[in-house]
Amino acid sequence: RVARIDATLAGTSPHQLAKERPTVQLDLLFSNILSPPVLFFALGMIATAVRSDLSIPDSIQKLFSLYLLWAIGFKGGYELSHAGLSLDVAVPICAAIAMSCLTPVAAFPVLRRMFSAADACAIAACFGSVSVVTFITAQNFLTRQGVEIGGYMVAALALMEAPAIVVAVVLYRGHMHKSRAADSDEAAPGVMPLIRESATAAPVFLLLGSLLVGLLAGEPGWKTLQPFCEDIFHGVLVLFLLEAGMTASRRLAEIEGIRFKAVATGLVMPLIGATVAIGLGRVLGLSVGDATILAVLAASASYIAVPAAMRIAVPEANSGLYLPMSLGITFPFNIAIGIPLYLGTVRLLWPETIG
Questions:
Q1: Per-residue confidence (pLDDT) for residue 110, from 0 to 100
Q2: pTM for the full predicted model
């Protein structure tokens, strides 16, 4: 019955759809694997493997990180001002932000049992935040399937990037303060000092501040800064990921013995996130398209904003662990399997699609 509905939406027969779906998914997979950001990340890993003397100065790499955080924050604020604040828009956006905040809270204690505190922080932030490329891929896939989504989901995408980073940094710094307090018999700081300390950390402050500026500046501000914020973004991104690939390759040896845990985490976390998001979408009465997009956002893992923030806020975190996990495991899983799986699950649970 679902196959017949899919066929109607796509304008093909069930038999044609069955033949075309694998091709569509392979096209999605290869088009994203062969995208410049992913290829430059791979090039960075190859450069280290062949012992090339290619390098990017630390000061330049820090500038790349700050630029990416600024651009992501400013565009998110603009998208929020563009979307408006009606009840229909506010409910799913608030749900998305809540998931971004709660995912690190739930994940950090579990991840801490398998990884170091710094690595648990970075991984929790990755899965609380989102992947823009995964979102765009899901958007294109749903369009091909004839499924509509609300334009405000772009604002939800932008607003899910920062909260997870803030919460993860707060959890990490709280953990470190408790450890030091236990060693020195001093009282650990309260929650508010930790939040203030984390919120004023350079990457978090820049991300949140840029989002606020984008919200206040609105359309006029966006038109002024769009060339700098959007047109050169992809060029800076590939250079950032080139260096990230070199760093990740150098640090891969450090995860010997925990690779199975890393792979398992990269596959299980998106399924848990998507399941919670689909249930939340059903309770809130979201449309099929919006519920699917929310599931995709909850299942995706950041490999841009979080690495840029962690490099400055938690430099102890092993990028050879969390970057390959988000980019090499969760990303292709969502592209090849996750997106159609989430859509199919939503259609099964939404009575109006099969009634």
A1: 93
A2: 0.71
